[in-house]
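TA notes, week 10

Several of you asked for a full example with nothing omitted. So below is the full record: structure tokens for the whole chain, then the designed sequence directly under it. When grading your own attempts, check the secondary structure regions first.
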């Protein structure tokens, strides 16, 4: 039990190459996908009785727990019936995919909920991968995993410096999400290409912005008063428009 609790902390997730995924829906997706190695499954008796077809192939790794025991190892304020310990996958940049689709590059996204939601958006629009700067929040944080809603099963997430991305595809069109940029709905810019989305409060770092030739903006409504859009909301709008082109 102490080992599972330790996986709520980044240093232990990285040390043991494990992370946790919780909840009935997420557990079903993981166990049916067969894409990630399950190292342990902890569940209430009610869940085990209701889903024998899911856990029996993992019977030697399955542990019956009480509600009190599940609460001790859960990262959720209200634990659900099942928790999985999974082997952390290793993903590499798919340079060929850069040439065929929109690619999001996230610069210094720090909020776990935002990263998880953007991961989910990438999954919804069928992006082949999601790229992050080394400064972004660690993707196997329990809050990221919960917000991703299973996107980690389908969309590889790769950390790499922007310079390495440009070196892998120097001719690929690249644009920055920038409030001062060209109106998204009037632009001729379209995939394949890289769209860079910056930090929730500071935007894209100046040293990175200087390397990006294009600028795209989501126009504010005529009566709009908000200073900015949430990073995940902006990512969703950009993807909805650009992926339809």
């Amino acid at each position: 039990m102490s080992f599972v609790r330790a996986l709520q902390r980044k240093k232990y997730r990285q040390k043991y190459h494990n992370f946790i995924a919780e909840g009935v829906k997420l557990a079903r997706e993981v166990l049916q996908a067969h894409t990630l190695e399950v190292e342990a499954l902890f569940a209430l008796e009610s869940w085990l009785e209701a889903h024998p077809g899911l856990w029996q192939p993992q019977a030697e790794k399955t542990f019956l727990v009480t509600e009190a025991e599940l609460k001790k190892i859960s990262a959720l304020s209200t634990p659900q019936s099942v928790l999985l310990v999974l082997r952390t996958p290793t993903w590499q940049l798919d340079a060929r995919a850069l040439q065929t689709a929109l690619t999001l590059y996230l610069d210094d996204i720090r909020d776990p909920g935002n990263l998880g939601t953007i991961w989910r958006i990438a999954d919804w629009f069928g992006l082949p991968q999601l790229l992050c700067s080394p400064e972004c929040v660690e993707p196997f944080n329990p809050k990221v995993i919960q917000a991703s809603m299973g996107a980690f099963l389908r969309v590889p997430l790769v950390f790499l410096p922007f310079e390495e991305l440009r070196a892998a595809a120097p001719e690929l069109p690249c644009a920055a999400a920038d409030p001062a940029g060209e109106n998204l709905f009037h632009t001729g810019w379209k995939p394949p290409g890289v769209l860079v989305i910056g930090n929730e409060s500071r935007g894209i770092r100046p040293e990175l912005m200087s390397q990006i030739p294009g600028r795209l903006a989501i126009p504010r409504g005529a009566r709009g008063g908000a200073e900015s859009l949430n990073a995940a909301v902006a990512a969703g709008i950009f993807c909805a428009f650009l992926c339809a082109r």
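Residues 95-242 form a domain with the Alpha/beta knot fold (CATH 3.40.1280.10). Use that as a sanity check on your answer.
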